[in-house]
Automatic annotation (TrEMBL):
GO biological process assignments: proteolysis
Region annotated Disordered, chain positions: 111-130
Cofactor: Zn(2+)
Domain of life where this protein originates: Eukaryota
Keywords carried by this UniProt record: Hydrolase, Metal-binding, Metalloprotease, Protease, Zinc
Entry-linked Pfam families: Peptidase_M54 (PF07998)
InterPro entries: MetalloPept_cat_dom_sf, Pept_M54_archaemetzincn
CDD domains assigned to the protein according to its UniProt record, in alphabetical order: Peptidase_M54
Gene Ontology MF term list: metal ion binding; metallopeptidase activity
UniProt xrefs under Gene3D superfamilies: Collagenase (Catalytic Domain)
Keyword Hydrolase applies: yes
Protein name in UniProt: Uncharacterized protein
């Protein structure tokens, strides 16, 4: 891993249409970044906004798949900004699969003159115990509701851990493009397209079977080895809902697949 200490030499600075803040600076993505000869891809993490061109406001991530270069803007994933960006914390993945929440999102997007009756959304996420429910999603939901939720008064390790989890998910998505994967239209998948931070937190942290097969082929590894590495990493953050839910999802999937 190479650490870049002089961004001015490899990126272009500019001001996007989102610039309504004094001394605001954003990185213009038309700048050139060269891939080192000893690297497969570049993942550049910056704490500035990114924008594509003069008509753009911001993007949280951008990958140039053919060049195997990706750039991630970390600032907007800060949980301290959730209120400003109207991020739905309670129904972040895996709770984004909640049926009543999905109906609420559908109702909100209905622009007809005669909208349907609004669906009632329960404020509490209830996961019923079921001895026969061993699906990865059920396991993820159970772990999610049993991990302390993120609040504005959460301890610093939960706040920073959640911030890291969000950045990891977007980084994985952009690196997927560097491996030649396009946006997924088949299943719930980390390679699904996302246009806002609100949508980002709903996305799953895993690859669907279609894109996973592509990654395993490209890396020359196995699904078991990949899941083991992900599990070891997630278990380092026992207070972060996304990491604990993903860890539970991995364990349940390995059991179904016949793993340890």
């Amino acid at each position: 891993m190479h650490q870049c200490r002089n961004l001015d030499k490899i990126i272009s600075w500019g001001v996007s249409n989102a610039a309504k803040i004094p001394n605001y600076r954003a990185i213009r993505l038309e700048g050139q970044i060269d891939l080192p000869q000893d690297a497969y891809a570049i993942l550049l993490l910056v704490n500035h906004d990114l924008f594509e061109d003069d008509d753009d406001e911001f993007v949280c991530g951008r990958a140039y798949g053919a060049s195997r270069i990706s750039v991630i803007a970390t600032a907007r994933y800060n949980p301290a900004l959730d209120g400003i960006q109207e991020v739905e914390r309670e129904h972040a993945w895996p709770a984004s699969h909640c049926q009543s929440y999905i109906m609420k999102c559908i109702d909100a997007s209905d622009s007809t003159k005669h909208p349907k009756k609004k669906s009632k959304v329960d404020s509490d996420l209830n996961v019923q115990d079921d001895q026969n429910a061993t699906s990865p999603m059920r396991a993820a939901l159970s772990a999610y509701v049993n991990t302390p939720p993120l609040t504005n008064s959460s301890p610093q390790d939960i706040i920073t851990g959640t911030w890291l989890a969000r950045v990891c998910r977007t980084s994985s998505h952009e690196l997927g493009h560097c491996f030649g994967m396009d946006h997924c239209v088949y299943y719930a998948c980390i390679m699904q397209g996302s246009g806002t931070v609100i949508e980002d937190v709903r996305q799953p942290p895993y690859l669907c079977p279609v894109d996973l097969s592509k990654l395993l082929k490209a890396c020359g590894t196995t699904e078991e080895a990949q899941l083991e590495a992900l599990l070891v990493f997630c278990e380092r953050f026992p207070k972060v809902q996304l990491f604990m839910a993903f860890a539970a999802w991995i364990r349940a999937k390995r059991l179904i697949d016949g793993g340890a």
